[in-house]
């Protein structure tokens, strides 16, 4: 049996380090995903991104966007409705690009909420994770064998992972009532302000 563990990171660097350690733990590349609304990289890589709001099915890949090997070497650009351009790799990126979804698939093409609920998360948690990406956080999701779930949690927590419960509580305390895919995408300044609000470091570890 496997468990899907998904967390938010307020530092894109932290998320990348967590992915690298999950791979070292033995989690296959095909079972890890990273989605990052990363102002430091997305804003400088516009090629192949559909700014009209549709998912760009021609994912632009390249290690130059942030990875040097493994899953991170396949980071590419997607544009997500209500969120804007993100860097992404792994099974969630493939799902968001519309690959592998049959007529009976539970995930709505192009939505993070649909993809995460299809993977087994509650709609409330999926909404928090989507809102986190919208606000500039980086999402890491891993399908992990139950026997290795505790070790994976240790890896994620080492780099400041945030659960949907904790972040959802923070959002609600500031008036947020749920994810709205029709809301405008955050600007780079707004995303940086969100990162500062939660006090996560942005330097490389």
UniProtKB/TrEMBL annotation:
Superkingdom of the source species: Bacteria
InterPro entries listed in its UniProt record: Low_temp-induced_all0457
Name of the protein in its database record: Putative membrane protein
């Amino acid at each position: 049996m496997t468990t899907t563990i998904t967390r938010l990171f307020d530092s894109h660097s932290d998320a990348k380090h967590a992915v690298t350690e999950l791979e070292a733990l033995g989690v296959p590349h095909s079972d890890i995903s990273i989605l990052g609304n990363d102002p430091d990289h997305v804003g400088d890589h516009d090629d192949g991104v559909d700014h009209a709001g549709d998912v760009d099915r021609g994912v632009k890949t390249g290690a130059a966007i942030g990875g040097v090997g493994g899953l991170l070497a396949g980071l590419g650009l997607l544009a997500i409705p209500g969120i804007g351009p993100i860097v992404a790799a792994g099974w969630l990126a493939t799902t968001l690009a519309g690959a592998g979804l049959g007529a009976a698939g539970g995930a709505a093409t192009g939505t993070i909420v649909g993809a995460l609920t299809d993977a087994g998360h509650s709609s409330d948690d999926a909404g928090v994770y989507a809102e986190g990406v919208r606000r500039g956080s980086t999402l890491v999701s891993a399908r992990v064998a139950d026997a290795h779930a505790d070790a994976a949690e240790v890896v994620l927590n080492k780099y400041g992972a945030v659960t949907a419960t904790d972040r959802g509580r923070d959002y609600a305390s500031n008036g947020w009532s749920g994810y709205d895919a029709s809301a405008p995408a955050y600007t780079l300044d707004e995303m940086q302000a969100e990162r500062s609000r939660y006090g996560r470091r942005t330097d490389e570890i």
